[in-house]
Write a structure and sequence with these properties.
Blueprint (H helix, E strand, L loop, with lengths): L7 H22 L6 H14 L3 E5 L2 H11 L7 E4 L6 H8 L3 E4 L22 E5 L10 H11 L2 E5 L7 E2 L2 E2 L6 E5 L13 E5 L2 H11 L3 E3 L2 E2 L10 H11 L2 H22 L17 E4 L3 H10 L28 H7 L2 E4 L7 H14 L1
Parallel strand pairs: 2-3, 2-4, 4-5, 5-8
Antiparallel strand pairs: 1-9, 6-7, 8-9, 10-11, 12-13
Helix pairs in contact: 1-7, 2-7, 3-4, 3-6, 8-11
Length: 364
């Protein structure tokens, strides 16, 4: 079969002229670092989310790192997060000398289970970092309420959920700080690495801006420890071009996701649940299978793409098992053995979606 897991080529063909025009403009003015497209993109993304500030950065990982630095995470601090996510979520905590405390996840949404958060808060806890997994925000109101009771920051890892909403508010603007990624396969992706930080706190925004340029408040005046965390002007230009049809893409993803729901429900195939009070941008469309490995082999034999996000929880990874805190996470363990993501994207054709579901129905 020739069905792509995500069809970035179709997206490029639809936007080719605008993307090339944006790239040419950068090549003409030659401001490859912190050029005018950086500020233009920040303004556009700020408007999309409703946050008071947007700070573009070099990657989604860098966004999380800078956000943690901005709130003052120090060695010995603890940050509560989920084990069922990409490693960058825990990586940045450990890089700052802090300790990730892993809380198990909901069995249906795969997002952090808010019922278990409060009992993991201790004297060293400084922040909660929920992940909006597969494109759907976690229960952010309850997380924010818990954080408020304990004087903690909340950093939404929204690497997969830019464009999603929660109770009428946009992901990335649901907490103290929101961080997203523009990795090429994300719902809004560039053609390399890129990311952004969102906040409505003026002081945090200023800290993030300074940290991303080596801690400078102005040229050669370093007021804090920083990193080289700027997003390239060319990548900002590409995201600006893609924003022109992003609302349409979000609508398409929602339509295709709902169609997957109907087709899979007819066949009795379990899937990640969608909560009624929030939307998803379906960074991945993920099903839950009793014998995932066998199904994935059958998909491979048929030439049908699939993916597993994520096969090993972070607290089971050898790099982290001696560093993390928290109780056992049996739900994350079980999900890691059962999740499989299907082809998904705004340009997925109905006939291709039918072929995916037909194959899955035969082999699952």
């Amino acid at each position: 079969m020739s069905i792509p897991f995500i069809d970035l080529k179709a997206q490029y063909r639809a936007l080719q002229a605008d993307i090339q025009q944006r790239i040419d403009r950068v090549l003409e003015h030659g401001q490859y670092i912190m050029g005018p497209e950086v500020r233009e993109l920040e303004g556009a993304l700020q408007a999309c989310t409703g946050a008071a500030h947007c700070v573009t950065v070099a990657s989604g990982t860098e966004a999380l790192l800078i956000a943690l630095m901005a709130i003052g995470i120090q060695p010995g601090d603890e940050v509560i997060t989920t084990p069922f996510t990409f490693v960058a979520t825990a990586e940045v905590i450990v890089l700052l000398g802090a300790r990730p405390v892993f809380v198990d996840v909901e069995p249906d949404t795969c997002n952090i289970d808010v019922r278990h958060i409060e009992r993991h808060i201790g004297p060293r806890t400084r922040a909660i970092m929920p992940v909006s997994l597969y494109g759907q925000p976690a229960d952010m109101d309850e997380i924010n309420a818990i954080a408020a009771r304990h004087g903690l920051h909340v950093i939404e890892d929204a690497a997969q959920s830019f464009g999603a909403s929660y109770k009428g508010r946009r992901s990335c603007n649901l907490s103290s700080i929101g961080c997203t990624s523009f990795f090429p396969s994300k719902p809004l992706g560039c053609y390399g690495d890129g990311g952004a930080i969102f906040t409505s706190d003026d002081a945090l925004a200023q800290a993030c801006r300074e940290i991303r340029v080596h801690g400078q408040s102005r040229r050669y005046v370093h007021t804090r420890i920083g990193v080289g965390g700027r997003m390239d002007t060319l990548q900002c230009a590409i995201v600006l071009a893609k924003l022109a049809r992003f609302d349409w893409e979000v609508e398409q993803r929602a339509r295709i996701g709902a169609r997957y729901d109907r087709l899979l429900d007819e066949r009795g195939i379990a899937r990640v649940a969608q909560r009624a009070d929030r939307s998803s941008v379906y960074a991945q469309y993920t099903v839950l299978l009793d014998d995932r490995d066998a199904v994935q082999r059958r998909f491979a034999d048929a030439g049908m793409p699939s993916a597993v996000h994520y096969p090993v929880p972070l607290n089971r990874q050898s790099a982290y098992d001696g560093l993390c805190g928290g109780d056992p996470t049996p739900v994350a363990d079980r999900l890691a053995a059962s999740v499989m993501s299907l082809p998904m994207g705004a340009d997925l054709r109905a006939e291709d979606q039918d072929a995916v579901v037909e194959l899955l129905g035969r082999v699952a």
